[in-house]
Amino acid sequence: MKFHWFNLMPWPHLPDDFTTRYRSVWVDVDSRLFDARKANQVYNDYLDLLEFAEELGYDGLGINEHHQNAYGLMPSPQLMAATLARRTRDASILLLGQSLALYDPPTRVAEEMAMIDCISGGRLISGFPVGSSMDDNYACGVNPATLREKYLEAHDLVKRAWADPDVFAWNGKHYKLRYVNLWPRPIQTPPPIWIPGGGSIETWDFCAAHHYNYSYLSFQGYVRGAQLMEGFWRRMETLGQEFNPYQAAFAQQICVAETDAEAQRLYEKHARYFFSRCLHVHPGFADAPGYPTEATIRAGLTSQMAGQSSALNQATTLSWREMIDLGFLVAGSVDSVCEQIEKLALGLKCGHLVCLLHFGDMPNELCRYSSELFARRVIPKTRPFWDEYTDHWSPQPMPRETRAVPRAPSRGAPNGSAKTTP
Amino acid sequence: MMEFRQLITIGGLTVHYARAGQGQPLLFLHGMLGLVAFDSAFSFLAEKFDVIAPWAPGWGPAKDDLDRMDPGPLDLTLHHCDLLDALQLKRTHLAGTSVGAWMAAELAAIAPARVECLVLVNPLGLWLDDTPGEDPFAVHPGMPSEILFSAPGLRKKYILEGRDKVDAHVDELLALRASAKFLWPIPDTGISRRLHRIKAPTLVVTSALDRIVPAPYGPTWQAGIVGSQYMELVGTGHVPEMERPAVFATVVSQFILAQPQTRAS
After folding, report:
1. What's the whole-number average pLDDT of chain A?
2. Which of B237, B234, B238 is nearest to B251 (CA)?
């Protein structure tokens, strides 16, 4: 099993009365709550954590894309990937991902991903989500009626731009380019492609058709996720795909301490910050008309009639114990967490675990503590899951000894007085 | 109840439409929710006119045709020209509400020779920075068209009652999907550059309780269409054809029947 350290990069300074004073954490969240000077520390803390995660031996460093969102401060995951490409050496760069339909021309995405793959020596995983309605339709103004066809066309264009060595013309419905000729080009041909999704059957079929990894990114945890992933695996079987757990990834909030009681004491308030403030989204931004397909609308209404909530922030009212029992959190002592990870691995049958070890307003030091316990004492026990399968969805970097070594920064000279000797 | 017939147009699209009444032809282009709850207004109009009410591509029985339409005005307008050809109507009176009023204005601007008199009720398509109106596409998905009505509970009465709840709700969301395609992300369709081409006698109507098209839009449309008239309806929201069908039909009929060319023919 592989373990990726992932950070949504939430804004940790939302006020206590955020959910009563403001209607949404996303799209029209009050920008006066943002403080650029504090963000200087926030971004650097988060990047420090990602770099620390590599030192701890995590397989991948995960970043993603959100717009006008106070729980996700990464409008451009490429920028984060670029700095990680320079400052880390071994971990995969799990860029999960870039919403293709937002970029015109989408070859810009192909170019940037190629740059990251080159700088990192071939460590990039390229995630291509359709993207959320909040990001794509409301924040970026893409027409929901044409979003999916733009996404699919952009995908085909990016794939061809990576693969075709010749200049070609692209005469699509949404994109028309007389000369497509990618410079630079990625080391990997192509970088592994992961498709983050929320559970639509169209996405599953797309993954099967292209043999992509399907990454289920929900905040509802592995207990509810198991049912959905069962549907995914059934669909893969129906479509004749040979079972391989590495074709699936799952994102899970995780926190570890020495004892169960300590875990609650250390992490509960940060989990609550995440589940209530960070997931406080105006329902009117959840699904633009035309974003969900007719089948998805019907399925959603039917499950609502049956009393199931689709709200993001449904863990708000749960007790700490319920959050764990229902799988919203994997939390507790090392033994408890090992036990829960085993259930998760077997229940979801997924080979890639995207570990949300930072959540809400968790401070840097505390996150390091949890991430280190997980890396040193949980991963060694749970890594052997799925050893008998080959992972076809991880990067194939250049051999380590042939990769460029970034120059170490000079630490000695005071600011502005560094001398360059020819 | 309105009875729908089918008609194959030259564009290869199947048009479902209702037609009733005697007199001069009146083409009605529906609003965001399609021809749902339009029966009553349809009957009133049919007392004075030969009323033709088609489902637009993307709505109701034509929901799967949405992909055939580009978001701009051209495909829809040519579709309506094709429809008039198929019905062998060289000219017609034309009325529309909401997004349908925008379609009507486009038809009158792009093909002015086809339109006798024009009535635009709560038209979308213009944008005033200082008076944006509420966003009809960022509302709670549990009651997506509530914002179109003047009071709580009216959505339930007009949209849901007497129907399977899930089916009605799905149809409602699909109708809004079609509307959003032509009005995303803000309802500035570029019609302002074409308004001067409208030659038909025109009445612009707004509704006092409309949260989507606030009152200032009425005078703005009127100013763009030479010689047009403007009036405001009281006591109704964005959908007067549902909430006040008799008043709606009277306003449309009286304006059209008062025009000199209508009286002469």
Report:
1. 94
2. B234
Domains and CATH numbers, chain A: 2-402 (3.20.20.30)
Beta carbon pairs, A and B, within 8 Å: 67
- Which amino acid appears at position A353 of this protein? L
- Buried/exposed code over A168-207 (b: 16+ C-beta within 10 A; e: otherwise): eebeeebbebeebebeebbbbebbbbbbbbebbeebbebb
Q: DSSP secondary-structure letter at B5?
A: E
Please report which confidence band the pLDDT of residue A309 belongs to, taking 50, 70 and 90 as the band edges: low
Distance CA A149, CA A158 (A): 14
The reply to whether A169 touches chain B by the CB within 8 Å rule is no
For residue B181, list chain A residues with Cβ-Cβ distance below 8 A: 143-146, 290
Please report residues of A whose CB lies closer than 8 A to that of B137.
288-289
- ipTM given for this complex: 0.93
Structure tokens at A128: 């291509």
Among positive and negative, which fits the CA dihedral B43, B48, B50, B51? negative
Q: What are B159-194's pLDDT values in tens digits?
A: 999 999 899 999 999 999 999 999 999 999 999 999
Nearest to A315 by CA among A250, A359, A261, A262: A359
For chain B, say whether A288 makes contact (Cβ under 8 Å): yes
CA distances from B217 to B39, B115, B197, B210 (A): 28, 22, 19, 11
pLDDT confidence tier of residue B6, bands split at 50, 70 and 90 = confident
Residue of A nearest to B176 (CA): A289
Instruction: Give the structural domain span for B251.
Output: 4-264
**Is the pLDDT assigned to residue A251 strictly greater than 70?**
yes
- Rounded CA Rg of chain B: 17
Residues B172 and B154: their CA atoms lie apart, in Å, by 14
Please give the single-letter amino acid code of residue A193: I
Poorest-pLDDT segment among A285-294, B55-64, B200-209: A285-294
Q: How far apart are CA B226 and CA B228, in angstroms?
A: 6
Q: How many domains does chain B have?
A: 1
Sign of CA dihedral A75, A393, A88, A121: negative
Residue A59 makes CB contacts below 8 A (sequence gap 6+) with: A2, A3, A4, A91, A92, A394
Are the C-beta atoms of B99 and B191 separated by less than 8 Å? Answer: no
Write the CATH number for B203. 3.40.50.1820
Confidence band (pLDDT; 50, 70, 90) for A422? very low
